[in-house]
Design a protein that fits this description.
Layout lengths: L2 E5 L3 H12 L4 E5 L5 H8 L3 E4 L8 H11 L4 E5 L4 H9 L4 E4 L4 H19 L2 E4 L2 E4 L4 E4 L2 E4 L2 H12 L5 E2 H8 L8 H17 L6 E4 L3 E4 L1
Parallel strand pairs: 1-2, 1-3, 3-4, 4-5
Antiparallel strand pairs: 6-7, 7-8, 8-9, 10-12, 11-12
InterPro entries: CheY-like_superfamily, OmpR/PhoB-type_DNA-bd, Sig_transdc_resp-reg_receiver, WalR-like, WH-like_DNA-bd_sf
GO molecular function: phosphorelay response regulator activity; transcription cis-regulatory region binding
Keywords: DNA-binding, Phosphoprotein, Transcription, Transcription regulation
Length: 221
Amino acid sequence: MKKIVIVEDDTKLRKYMEKYLKGYNYEVFVIADFENVEEEVLDINPDLILLDINLPTFDGFYFLKVIRRKRDIPIIIVSARSEEGEQIRGIEMGADDYVTKPFSMGILLAKINAVLRRTTIKSADVIEVCDMMLLCEGMQLKAHNTIIDLSKNEYKLMKMFMNNYTKVVSREKLLEELWEEESFVDDNTLTVNITRLKKKLRDMNLKCEIITKRGIGYVLK
């Protein structure tokens, strides 16, 4: 279930948006304490933020700037400021869309769905787990501003581990992942690739590691 955070000081509108979006199977969080918006949002780590600009304690543009520095969370501005200059400012500062009040909830929902679709397509090329990112297009692993190249087999294994983070993956499943019609992959090949991958993770000083579960398989945790 996708998580949406609503940052809106109009209580009536906030409750209506919350109820409406919950009806479309979204997990909705509302921010009522505008002194700690940044901390609350980062703790929730939502899939999308609906952000009002006219907030009681600070300008929403400031919050947009702060979040953009720390996270790549999709943000749709929902504001009574309908001037073209304000809309351009919001988009140029990193907002994914801008909806002016009053608005139709149906249109807002369509924009939310569109932004999340674009984000899903974009994120499909990157898998993020623990303190590292797997860059699928280039078969690379990134952590702490360091990027290392992975072999084809190492990439396949790393992708399997990251997609099953904290879950044990059996040797049989890993062998199936490496198997190709034109090449035979034996048990020793798997062991060699796992060993190389373990070393690369250690060299990057990551918080997580690949742990051997003797007689069962391996787990990234």
